[in-house]
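Are you able to produce any protein sequence you like plus the matching backbone structure tokens because I've never seen that pairing?
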Amino acid sequence: MRELAICIQNENKNVSALETINSVKNANFKNVFIQWYDENWKYTQEEQVKRCKELGFNIIFAHLGYQNINAIWEEGLEGDKLVERYKKDIKDCKENNIPMVVMHLTRSKTAPMYNEIGLNRIRKIVEYAKKLNIKVAFENTKIKGYLEYIIENIKEENVGICFDSGHYHIHFNDEFNFKLFKDKIFAVHLHDNDKSDDLHLMPFEGTINWKELILKLKECNYNGPITLELCYRYDYLKMSLDEFYKKGYEIGEKLADMFED
């Protein structure tokens, strides 16, 4: 059976990140990923990591922030600053024994066209990560083409992708070049929606064809954890936080069984 993992979600409604961490523990998860966004949260990302370590969690990756990420494709100081920011984040993750980071390549539905300027900056980031033995997984977000551009132009062993099922469904209309990313899916974000919004529902509660999607992930040789990216909001608030994550664990087990079929 595959390992299960889940996001320590900072957008959960009416609860703190530490309450989320405790409920994730109560639900029997052993693996988590952290949102390393450098945001002004009640509990900092460092405090969240500390609590996760106290509870014995394995932190499989850190999801880095994507503030101003579109500037990475533009000339100017803003794009250069992003390189230094991400290098610092990667260094911090190394110091916390986090072996992988997930990054976005764009934000919103429009962004500068991918180009050599951004490619050269991203090369600097991944080369720095390689020196620290950190993997970098780039996530499919809202615009096609960027993942392909990076994977085709940066052939480093520490460079791969994080496949997000919700974005694949709502933003890509279930169209994705899985063959190109064979053996390059380092991580996944598994959640569902009904194409009305990026809802972060539990799998099987939206309109994703999970049987078909899991088959595609298996064909790509994805062999990592079943990693859920759920959010406690909307109708989920009718149940307790503990009930929410226990149900999430059960859904994770169902997905893990499907990977074994």
Observations:
- Strands lie at 4-8, 31-36, 58-64, 100-103, 135-139, 159-164, 185-189, 226-228.
